[in-house]
Amino acid sequence: MDFLQILFISPYLPSLIRVRPYNFIKFLAERGHQVTLLALEPPKEDTGSLTSLRQWCQQVQIVPLSRWRTLWNGVQAIPGQTPFQAAYSRSPQMNALIRQIQHQNSFDVVHVEHLRGAELARAVNGTPIVFDSVDSITLLFERVLQAGPTWRSRLLARLDLARTRRYEGRFLERFQRVLVTSPHDRDAMAKLAATSNQEDRLVVLPNGVDLDYFHPLDIPRNPATLVFTGKMSYHANVAAALDLATQVMPLVWQRVPEAHLAIVGKDPTPELLALTADPRIIVTGTVPDMRPHLAQATVAVSPMRYGVGIQNKVLEAMAMGTPVISTPQAVSALQIKPGHEVLVTDSAEAMAKAVVAMLTNDELRQRLGQTGRCYVETHHDWKATAAKLETIYRKVILETKR
After folding, report:
1. What is the pLDDT of residue 226?
2. Phi, psi of 263, rounded to the nearest 5 degrees
3. pLDDT (average), residues 12-40
4. Predicted TM-score (pTM) of this structure
5. What is the CATH number that goes with domain 225-379?
6. Which long-range contacts does 246-253 make (Cβ < 8 Å, 24+ apart)?
7. What is the DSSP code string of 312-372?
8. Contact between 340 and 371 (Cβ < 8 Å)
C-alpha cells in the first residue's frame, strides 16, 4: 500500500479537547501516512498537545493568531458576506506558509479543519481538498435561536445565521469532499447546497473514541456522584450545566440528599462558578486528565437542550464504563437503543428519576456500563474511523487524476 503525503490545515491546535483532528492525525500516522500539520495558535490557546503532535507528524508549524488580528478580522467582516466564524481565522502569515510548504513539498491531499479554517483553504494550490466541516454551524445557530441560554448567545447566532447559510451552501462547490459527524448535519448541509447534483461529495464520518486511552479503570467510584464534562465556556454546555444544577439536582436531593455533582471542564463561566455556593456542587475548571473524573463518578449525565454532531462527552463516558443518562439531543447521532446502552430522558423530572434509579441500583449501573463500553467498541473506534478517512482521501485523489 502506498502511504499518503497529507497536508493538514487547522485553525487551532488539535488536542484532547479538539479531539477529532487530534485523533485523525494520531491514527493516520499510526497507519503509516506522512502528515504535515500547519495550525493557527489563537489567543490563550493551550499548547500542551504539541509534544504528541510532533511525535506523530513529519512536520508541525504553528502560526500565532494574535488578539488584534482576530479583532481586525471581525471589523473587516462587518460589511462583507463571510461569517464571523470563518473570518476569525484569516491570516496572511498562514496563507504565505501554506503556499511556501506546498512549493517545497508534494502532497497527495489537503485536509482542512472546520468552518473556522475554511478561509485558509483559499491558499491551497490545486491539490484535492477534503474539508471537515465537523458540524453544520447553520443548524447549530438555528437551535441556539430556539434554546440558547443567554440573550448574547441568541444575538450572536442571529447576526451570523444568514451569512453562515450562504457560506456553507457553497462548500460542495469549493471542496471535493465535505465531512460531517452525523446524518442530521448531512441533511442540513445538503439542504443548503446550491446544486443537488453534488450531494455525493457530502460524507458522514462519525467521531470515535481512543479505546486504549479511554477504558475502565480499576479504582473505586465515589458514592452518589454525578459528572458532567465538556468545555464550560461553550453555550450549549453552559445551558446543560445550569439545567442540571437548578432543575434536576433539587429533585434528586429530595430522594438522595447526599448526592454530589461535579461539573468538569475548562473555562467555566461566572454563572457556573456561582453554583459552588452549594457545597454539593463542584466546578473544577481545567483538569489535566478527564479520565479519573469519569472513572470515579457513579453516573455521567448529559442534559443537552440542543447541539449538533456527536457528543464526545457521551462516547468517552461510555468508553470508561461509566453509565450515562442523557436527553435525546445528546444521543440523536448515535445508533443506541435507549435503555440498553444509555438511559434517555426528555424532562428534568424524568432525568431526576433516572438518576435516583441509577444511584440506588448496582445491577443497573453495571449493566449500562458494560453495554455502553461494548457499543463504543463496536461503532466508534478511532482506528476504524481513520481507515474510513483514508478511503475517502484515496477516492478523492483518484477522481482528481481522471
Report:
1. 97
2. -105, 110
3. 96
4. 0.89
5. 3.40.50.2000
6. 247/348, 248/301, 248/303, 248/348, 248/351, 248/352, 248/355, 249/280, 249/281, 249/352, 251/348, 251/349, 251/352, 251/353, 252/226, 252/352, 252/355, 252/356, 252/359, 253/280
7. HHHHHHHHTT--EEE-HHHHTTS---BTTTBEE-SSHHHHHHHHHHHHT-HHHHHHHHHHH
8. yes
> pLDDT per residue over 200-217, tens digit each?
899 999 999 999 999 999
d(CA 149, CA 157): 12
| Distances, alpha carbon 355 to alpha carbons 237, 257, 298, 326, 358, in Å | 19, 12, 10, 10, 5
Cα separation, 267 vs 285, in Å, equals: 6
For 170, the grid coordinates are 457553497
What mean pLDDT, rounded, does the chain reach?
93
In the chain, % of residues over pLDDT 90: 81
Task: Output the CA–CA distances (angstroms, integers) from residue 357 to 21, 114, 159, 266, 353, in the order listed.
Answer: 37, 40, 43, 30, 6
Radius of gyration of the chain (CA): 21
Question: What residue spans define the domains of the chain?
Answer: 5-208+381-401, 225-379
Helices (H), 78-148: 84-87, 92-104, 137-147
- Do residues 339 and 357 touch, judged by C-beta distance below 8 A? no
Fold of the CATH domain 5-208+381-401 = Rossmann fold (3.40.50)
Q: Which amino acid makes up residue 76?
A: Q
133 within 8 A of 140, measured Cβ to Cβ: no
Q: Is the pLDDT of residue 114 over 90?
A: yes
Per residue in 336-370, pLDDT (tens digit) is 888 899 999 999 999 999 999 999 999 999 999 99
Q: Measured in Å, how far apart are the chain's first and last C-alpha atoms?
A: 20
The pLDDT value given to residue 150: 79
pLDDT band at 196 (very low <50, low <70, confident <90, very high): low
Contact 7, 36 (CB under 8 A): yes
Distance from C-alpha of 400 to C-alpha of 394, rounded to nearest angstrom: 10
